[in-house]
């Protein structure tokens, strides 16, 4: 293990992250608020910590190996979530414990969207903006941003990129050089953010709300500047803009990149994961809307369709925006939506969950085993499109799914051991491990009522979900530390 290299990179990344605490100061000045000091203090603390890490080893020029990348990613997300909580702790306008501040910070960076704050409408704009910015940075991954910059500082980035990017196939690059890949992803990400903000403005939001909600929509985060989330605006146009960009953000960003580079949308229709993702959202939306019609939940057909469509897309893509308290919806709808979040969005998107591509491969594997019962000697490959999937990839998917279920079960038991009822515990684990945000029961409107122990379990779930479990679990295996 190249400890000097790991320490040097952590120091550099912390110093870079400290700069993200400066924009809220500008927001505070625009709105003439006296809430800028906590961000100056947070900036100074984070910058100083980065310098302390970096200075002793700044001359180290050893190569970064794959296992070093895993350690950097895991350590940095843990450290990042801790230092990201600094402005929230220092702020006089809100009173937060260390646990609550780290919970809120980690929820933002992992794009979970679970919150322990109430009275958002009365909070300073600088704090509201900071929460949204945390989600935006975490959406594509602060590490992917870093690999576009670190080569200029003499640090290779491919090892970090493999450890950070979600999905079962990690070696696919959009461009020959990893730096160019990271830049390409961020260009697409930035273009979507600007387009989303423009859409919200055109639909009637003010510029501040439009910017903040664009951050959390494209990041599939779910934080809002209002307690009522998107429902605060009571606007069909705004709801539809959100649906469009939540759907787009749940698609593999490499497809967006190819569409932009080649000025063609045929890549979407040719991608089996995209077709499955679209089909899942379509079927789920129809089921939800039909059930709402059946139970007469809304007085008009328009309200039924808009609310059903919005919540189906929001929960299934793990965004977590709400226009209604779906936990109070009739029949099995709340549980159906929570189960949909387990699938999540596509690999290579900002969504959480197991990912559509994994669920598709598990389905195809199941179908193959049924066929094998009839034709036991047949060689039946699993295909995505016209390409056969390697057995190693299928094995990795099943391994991930198995570990996911084991981790979920352990966290569920741990949550219930803190005194939570079954519905609250189940949805709390689902909401954090799937990076969803809102749950059912006592966590339907937030996690503020949970004990500190339950919140730390939730924090662990957010990290495991964001880094797709293996990136963290690999650190506790003896093989990882063996020379």
Number of strands: 2
- In whole angstroms, the N-to-C terminal distance is 8 Å
> What's the order of the H and E elements?
HHHHHHHHHHHHHHHHHHEEHHHHH
Contiguous uncertain segments of 5+ residues = none
Strand content: under 5%
Radius of gyration (CA) equals: 22 Å
Shape: globular
The chain-level structural class is: mainly alpha
Biggest sheet layout: 2 strands, antiparallel
Tally of separate helices: 23
Q: Helix coverage percent of residues?
A: 55-70%
Main sheet strand line-up: 1-2
Please, what is the average pLDDT? 88
Give a written overview of the molecule.
- The protein has 483 residues and is mainly α.
- The chain has a domain at 391-481.
- Helix content is 64%, strand content 1%.
- It is built from 23 helices and two strands.
- It has helices spanning 3-18, 23-30, 37-54, 66-84, 86-90, 98-109, 125-140, 142-149, 158-164, 178-203, 207-218, 236-249, 253-262, 266-270, 272-295, 301-316, 333-343, 356-374, 391-417, 422-433, 452-466, 470-473, 478-481, and strands at 383-384, 387-388.
- The chain has a two-stranded antiparallel ribbon.
- α6 (98-109) runs parallel beside α21.
- The longest helix is centred in the last third of the chain and has 27 residues, at 391-417.
- The termini are close together.
């Amino acid at each position: 293990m190249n400890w000097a290299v790991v320490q040097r990179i952590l120091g550099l990344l912390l110093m870079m992250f400290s700069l993200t605490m400066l924009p809220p100061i500008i927001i505070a000045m625009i709105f003439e608020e006296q809430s800028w000091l906590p961000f100056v203090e947070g900036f100074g603390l984070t910058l100083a910590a980065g310098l302390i890490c970096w200075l002793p080893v700044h001359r180290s020029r050893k190569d970064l190996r794959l296992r070093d990348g895993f350690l950097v990613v895991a350590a940095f997300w843990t450290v990042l979530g801790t230092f990201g909580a600094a402005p929230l702790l220092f702020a006089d306008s809100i009173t937060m414990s260390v646990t609550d501040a780290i919970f809120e910070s980690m929820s933002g960076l992992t794009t979970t969207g679970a919150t322990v704050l109430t009275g958002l409408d009365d909070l300073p704009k600088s704090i509201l903006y900071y929460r949204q910015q945390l989600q935006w940075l975490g959406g594509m991954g602060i590490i992917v941003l870093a690999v576009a910059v670190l080569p200029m500082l003499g640090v290779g980035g491919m090892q970090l990129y493999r450890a950070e990017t979600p999905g079962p196939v990690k070696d696919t690059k959009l461009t020959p050089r990893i730096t160019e890949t990271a830049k390409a992803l961020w260009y697409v990400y930035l273009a979507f953010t600007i387009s989303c903000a423009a859409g919200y403005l055109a639909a009637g939001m003010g510029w501040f709300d439009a910017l903040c909600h664009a951050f959390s929509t494209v990041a599939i985060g779910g934080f809002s500047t209002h307690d009522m989330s998107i429902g605060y605006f009571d606007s069909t146009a705004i709801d539809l803009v959100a649906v469009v960009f939540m759907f787009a953000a749940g698609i593999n960003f490499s497809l967006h990149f190819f569409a932009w580079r080649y000025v063609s949308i045929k890549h979407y229709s040719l991608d089996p994961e995209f077709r499955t993702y679209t089909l899942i959202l379509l079927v789920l939306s129809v089921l939800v809307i039909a059930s709402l019609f059946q139970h007469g939940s809304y007085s008009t057909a328009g309200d039924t369709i808009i609310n059903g469509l919005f919540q189906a897309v929001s929960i299934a893509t793990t965004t977590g925006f709400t226009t209604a308290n779906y936990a109070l919806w009739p029949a099995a709808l709340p549980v159906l939506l929570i189960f949909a979040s387990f699938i999540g969005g596509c690999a290579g998107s900002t969504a959480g969950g197991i990912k559509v591509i994994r669920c598709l491969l598990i389905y195809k594997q199941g179908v193959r085993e049924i066929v094998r019962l009839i034709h036991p000697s047949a060689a039946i490959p699993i295909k995505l499109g016209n390409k056969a999937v390697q057995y190693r990839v299928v094995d990795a998917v099943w391994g991930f799914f198995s570990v996911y279920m084991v981790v979920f079960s352990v966290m569920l038991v741990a949550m219930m051991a803190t005194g939570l009822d079954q519905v609250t515990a189940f949805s709390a684990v689902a909401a954090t491990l799937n990076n969803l945000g809102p749950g059912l029961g006592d966590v339907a409107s937030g996690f503020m009522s949970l004990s500190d122990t339950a919140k730390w379990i939730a924090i662990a779930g957010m990290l495991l979900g964001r880094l797709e479990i293996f990136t963290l679990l690999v650190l506790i295996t003896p093989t990882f530390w063996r020379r």
